[in-house]
Write a structure and sequence with these properties.
Elements (H helix, E strand, L loop, with lengths): L1 H21 L17 E7 L9 E6 L5 E5 L7 E5 L2 E4 L8 E4 L1 H6 L9 E4 L6 E8 L6 E2 L12 E2 H15 L13
Antiparallel strand pairs: 1-8, 2-7, 3-6, 3-8, 4-5, 4-7, 9-10
Length: 185
């Protein structure tokens, strides 16, 4: 498990580095704040649910990290993402990983990269498994735009962001996310 997590850490940093370079930026500022002690891996198990084909394994959401690398179940689908206001199934591919941009990367990139809303639907007959690796900074790390002068987001810490998400979920039942941190609010 540790070997897998280490490999995902290196892959996540490499992918993030390519995305940063694609924007013409030298460094993202997050490199020193995302390490083995701040990132995490989650093993997901979705038992079958014969009651309804509309039962969520995970409710619609965006990821709160910089980026997520997902290894889907090789045979059982369920992951869906929002594209053009419609849910689209992501077909499992045993030779591929799914990479999701997270909210923090969206804020850092000033909306050049978008955190995609996604969900997981359970299967009626078959159990589903997945492994997700989350590239996260420490809770004290400041998240700012690579272009601070033109940023549409306020500067915030990851801890402030997570705390606001928890408050929103407790008050309204859902995550509000980045709109809470727009400069105009």
């Amino acid at each position: 498990m540790q070997e897998y997590a280490n490999a995902m850490q290196e892959l996540a940093k490499s992918i993030a580095g390519v995305l940063v370079a694609n924007m013409g930026a030298q460094r993202g500022g997050w490199e020193d704040n995302c390490n083995a002690s701040t990132c995490f891996m989650r093993l997901n198990r979705y038992p079958p649910c014969p009651i309804s084909p509309e039962v969520f394994g995970l409710v619609p959401h965006t990821d709160s990290d910089f980026l997520t690398i997902l290894h889907q179940d090789e045979h059982v689908g369920g992951l869906q993402l929002m594209k053009d206001s419609k849910w689209v199934a992501v077909k499992p591919n045993p030779d591929a990983l799914v990479v999701n941009i997270g909210d923090l990367f969206q804020a850092w990139s000033n909306d050049v990269y978008k955190s995609v809303e996604h969900k997981v639907m359970v299967n009626q007959e078959v159990e589903r498994h997945s492994i997700a690796y989350f590239l996260c900074p420490s809770y004290e790390a400041f998240i700012g735009c690579y272009d601070e002068e033109n940023s549409i987001y306020k500067r915030f810490t990851f801890g402030e962001y997570r705390s606001q998400i928890q408050k929103d979920v407790k008050a309204s039942g859902h995550k509000v996310g980045l709109p809470r941190f727009l400069v105009s609010t």
